Recover the amino acids of this structure.
């Protein structure tokens, strides 16, 4: 196991040594004593002429949020760094956001975009989504991005779009207007079906869920209220409401659609949010996305391709 002091020596004697200028891969995974100080040692050397790492692996090193700034500096300064693996650490939302933003803004003069691997860190879904979008933009192979979300994915897409006006469009299936409202509806429905839960037991369970989410994901679950955000979101949106969904009742989507500030469409479909979608919906969504993203005619899917998708019965992403 390497300590932070050992990393200082490693950088000075190996990474930056002129005979080792050809060193392009460094795997320090599972060295749990490196800490932020060890990452700072790597960061201080990142702009050096002999720092030629293309792959830096720091998986399972028990890094926390204090390592975020030096990791972002490595991405910003290291020429040719193609991959930074920080999976299975304890990096928080702020740290991962800083690294992802740096990957997105990395100048072309430093060479290839840096692939960022962050699975296994206690980050919120919205931050993981930000990482994915930042990686797509950094790669330079995409233009305008649209988000198609389903259930919790729809909520994450909606909340992200409220903060990111560069998103081109939204397709939202089974979006929840208010998580606390949804839980109350589940409780009431359970009582109607004879599954009454004592109020004290329910309150204790909700407190445990709330505490666990706050500790592991760093956010307050009962503050997830897309209804409070849609009034300031102006990205074109298509709301898909399933009229018989047992999980998210249709009034959630209708409420969100009614309060949404931007251009909007609402399509109600039979069945639930896991049912196969009709060809009408698939065609409507394809037309909506093509128009909102301004897809050139030569790149748009033809009717046959859309029909083939419909035959598979996909219900959204």
């Amino acid at each position: 196991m390497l300590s932070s002091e050992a990393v200082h020596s490693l950088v000075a004697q190996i990474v930056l040594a002129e005979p080792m200028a050809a060193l392009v891969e460094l795997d320090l995974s599972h060295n749990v004593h490196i800490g932020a100080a060890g990452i700072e040692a790597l960061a201080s050397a990142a702009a050096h002429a002999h720092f030629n790492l293309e792959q830096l692996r720091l998986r399972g090193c028990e890094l926390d949020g204090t390592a975020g700034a030096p990791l972002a500096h490595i991405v910003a300064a290291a020429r040719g760094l193609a991959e930074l693996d920080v999976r299975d650490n304890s990096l928080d939302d702020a740290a991962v956001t800083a690294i992802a933003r740096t990957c997105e803004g990395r100048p072309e003069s430093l060479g290839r975009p840096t692939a960022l691997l962050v699975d296994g860190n206690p980050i919120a879904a919205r931050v993981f989504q930000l990482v994915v979008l930042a990686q797509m933009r950094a790669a330079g192979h995409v233009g305008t991005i649209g988000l198609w979300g389903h259930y919790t994915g729809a909520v994450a897409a909606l909340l992200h779009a409220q903060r990111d006006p560069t998103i081109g469009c939204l397709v939202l299936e089974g979006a929840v207007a208010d998580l606390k409202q949804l839980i109350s509806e589940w409780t009431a429905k359970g009582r109607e079906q004879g599954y009454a839960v004592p109020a004290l037991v329910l309150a204790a369970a909700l407190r445990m869920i709330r505490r666990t989410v706050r500790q592991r994901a760093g956010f307050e679950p009962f503050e997830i209220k897309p209804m409070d955000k849609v009034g300031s979101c102006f990205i074109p949106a298509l709301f898909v409401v399933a009229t018989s969904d047992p999980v998210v009742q249709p009034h959630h989507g209708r409420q969100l659609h009614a309060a949404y500030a931007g251009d909007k469409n609402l399509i109600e479909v039979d069945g639930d949010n896991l049912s196969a979608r009709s060809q009408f919906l698939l065609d409507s969504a394809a037309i909506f996305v093509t128009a909102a993203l301004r897809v050139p005619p030569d790149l748009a899917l033809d009717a046959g391709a859309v029909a083939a998708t419909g035959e598979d019965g996909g219900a959204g992403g």
